[in-house]
Amino acid sequence: MKEKNIFLMLPFWDTLIPPTGISVLKSFLKQYGYDIRIVDANIDVKLKEYISLYFELLKKIIPKQKRGNFLNIGYDVLKNHMMAFINRKDEARYKNLIRKLIWRTYFTKLNDLQINEIDDYIKEYFEYFEKYIIDLIETEKPTTIGFSVYNDTFPSSLFAARIIKKRFSYITTLIGGSIFSDLTLNSPNFKFFLKKTEDIFDKIFIGESELLLLKYFRNEFLESKRVFTIKDLDGEVFPISDVKSPDFSDLDLSFYMLDSYEGSRSCYMQCEFCSETVYKGKYRTKNIKHVLDDLKEMYKTHKNQLFLMCDSLLNPIITELSVEIAKENTPVYFDGYLRVDKNGSYLENSFLWRKGGFYRARIGVESGSQKVLDLMNKKIKIDEIISAISSLAEAGVKTTTYWICGYPGETEEDFQMTLDLLERLSEDIYEADCCPFIYSYTGQSGSDSFIKNGKIGEVYDNYEKEMLLGQSYFLDTEPNREEIYSRVNRFIEHCKKLNIPNPYSLNEIIDADKRWKELHINAVPSYIDFEKENSVVKECRNKQIINKASNLFDTDWDFNLV
Length: 562
What we know:
Layout (H helix, E strand, L loop, with lengths): L4 E5 L10 H11 L5 E5 L4 H17 L8 H18 L3 H16 L5 H29 L3 E5 L5 H14 L4 E5 L11 H9 L6 E3 L4 H8 L9 E2 L30 E3 L2 E2 L10 H5 L3 E2 L2 H15 L3 E4 L8 H11 L4 E6 L8 H9 L2 E9 L3 H6 L6 H13 L3 E8 L6 H13 L6 E6 L10 H6 L2 E4 L3 H7 L4 E4 L4 H17 L8 H14 L19 H4 L2 E3 L3 E3 L9
Parallel strand pairs: 1-2, 1-3, 3-4, 4-5, 5-6, 7-10, 10-11, 11-12, 12-13, 13-14
Antiparallel strand pairs: 8-9, 15-16, 17-18
Helix pairs in contact: 2-5, 3-4, 3-6, 3-17, 5-6, 10-11, 11-12, 12-14, 15-18
């Protein structure tokens, strides 16, 4: 039988962009003759409907003042609820765990009736999802299934793998993805995972997997080997410039808001709370000519002007990329993660990037307290944050800001500084998104250093650990968990007071875009401007950009800026 490989992205993952990681793997492996098909179950309307209903009911149950960043923190509840559901054995212990999950996030007590109501949606989801998986396998008849797994997609992936092993035992199951940035090799949870999934996942790929998968498909590893890491490459580093653009040919791109691409991999920073460098290893960039050629080809093929750059940080390539896009008059706009640094503080650079198609800057501000920023090892100053965000906003680039509430050592005074900074920058922030600090036993750059500042506690007992397929840990430090989540609620309320949005739905995005245009004369086009049929947006090259202080920047200015 001819080998047929399917790589799956299962719920729940945001359909902002297509599943880029497995699409890059498809593109790379196809060069060597391997047949890979990509399936993204997140676009299935019925599967999405069950989860929407779950959150609608949960939102009714949770008091308004305790909802905080509801969907952001709610997906953690959903993931654990789903995992507990598929691993439950004792109904009483199971329901107690659901109560505990809700309490630890929303600090609200649920009664049996409420638990039964939200539980019904989880039950209905898995009943439908089982049929979805069986139909997929019977239709496609694959010999290998690869699961691309993130924390939020783990329960569905585990459930699907169990079905496959029970009904289609001849299929080889592979698992990889960013779940292993938390579920690291040296963690107790990884050993537990290995034991509990030995009959479910045949092969496990940790970290960057292009070369590992190629060698696996070529049978260059022992058949008995189950876990593969970059150490199995004997120091060989994958040259990311060898990868062509992601292969989205199996996907209906009309379901996604943006196309996606990466111009670099890993990160050149070492922030204490982040797992990027731990997981992806050495930082590498592609040749800008290569990047531009790929973006042009993808635009020509897909007709989508908006791209999310999946780079951890755009800083090393953004200036050169913007210059080249502007020079060639390529009609693409790009959105991506940007670190606050001295170059981002210069208005000239913000205008340069804007003229090169920079659409949205996703900035990890994290805190308004210099003390907390130093604890995080962010290596940035408050005045640099203010200059960068203000400069980008004046150029019209959307500024999405990310914040962390309750970092170990954050005092009430420190948190008030965060609220004050929000207020100071309110008109220059397109959206503000915050999350509570979550401690990871391993995987974060600063995992070991956190231990020095407080004792580690286990969140769940042994029965709960079995249901969740792993243990969670907490630091016995200030602020405590309840205070952390209280600060998340206060952060959200302060944003509402300041009219700073955090849009999720299309209508919310339209409203946020309208606000941005009213605030900034150089504002980038609204998202819906790119959705108009037979239209090509090129305003960043066609108009003069107005500067508050000096009237106009000439459109034919020198691109040789630092």
